[in-house]
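= Paired protein data =
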Amino acid sequence: VCSSDLMHIQFNKQAIAIAAAILTSGTSAWATNGMILEGYGPVALAMGGAATAIENGTAAMMNNPATLQMGPDGTRFDLALGVLGPKVSTSVPGFPSANSSGTSYVMPAFGWVRKAGTLTYGVGMFGQGGMGTDYAANSALAMGSGADVRSELSVGRVLFPVAMKVNDKLNVGATLDFAWSNLDMKMAATGAQLGGMVNGMPSGNLGMALPQLAQAPWARIDFSNSSDYSGAAKATGWTGKLGMTYQATPDMTLGASYHLKTAQGDMKTTATGASMSAPGGFADVGQLKVLDFQMPATLALGMAFKSSPALTLAADVKRVEWSKVMKQFSMSYTSAGMGGSVSFAMPQNWADQTVVSLGAAYRVNDLLTLRGGINKASNPIPKELTNPLFPAIVEEHITLGVGYQINKQLQLDMAMSHAGKVTVATPGASISHSQNNWQVLASYRY
């Protein structure tokens, strides 16, 4: 056997290993705590995500809507901008390390609330999560297909909150949330691995072509557009949340919130918005559906303690029910060219996740507040199913922030978080991920 044959055999073995790592993990979405941001709004982010029992502006509608009632009477408008800054790389034995060029994902947000005595109501729009990776066409993940491999997901909400003061100790709140999800994906795998994920009986000419496709050295499924804020596959639906705060003592506030599981339709492209391709001239366009993609229910418990007039300490514990929404990843492809359809099922087996947030805020004077915190979470994804396209493996964030009262009406809040490098060895690949995120918010009261 000549050296070139040996290299070809080695490449095929490694390609199969890479394909197994990608396909068996599917296309799960992610942000920082699994698919959920470590903090919504710069006040929460700076305090490690702890926001269940503190006043945190209009971001409360994403955290605990009952805390909206803790703010002063009047009207408040918040305009915010957040950026997720991941640094992801994948190493495959025998190939150069591949660095993702997806290093910046922008998430704008706004909130408006009106508080009058015992009632607060409003509207807002926030990104709940979203990120992705982008590997070059000459990387090992492209499998020799000659095209790039990428993923990009955005999950967001338009929220309609209401909060009420029940008595001097108890506040309650709720939101009705219009939710959406958008996904782009360009994925390469061996034909055999793609065929191994087929679920049920394929139909039509596409079904008859699959045995031949299974012999291909690579095959691709692609659906992607050029927008930074919407994906080729889209879904919408509804969800909501409930919350409360209780003033246990003059210095201690307790809080709780429950975020309901989303009820979205299937994410789907247009009738010709996706494609399947393989060597030898196999090319088809059709519709891709991601079946029953949902965000999980989350229970949060928190407390805030005013240890002095200047210093507030806060702590939250969240339980995220990933196991009920991420057992497997299912999608279907319906051909608009040759006709027929095929369904795929890919195991996920995410575990429920516990997230602990600890934070502190120190009011230096009437104008300046300094904040800091830590966010620590368990990794919900089994090591063997971690995906090079969606490596949701970061577990700990260190956070800092500052608030500055410019005048009686205008305030600025900023926060940054850093997640240190984490590396996971999967079958066929070693994946590393670190992250620097930031948020800035301008608040106007009138």
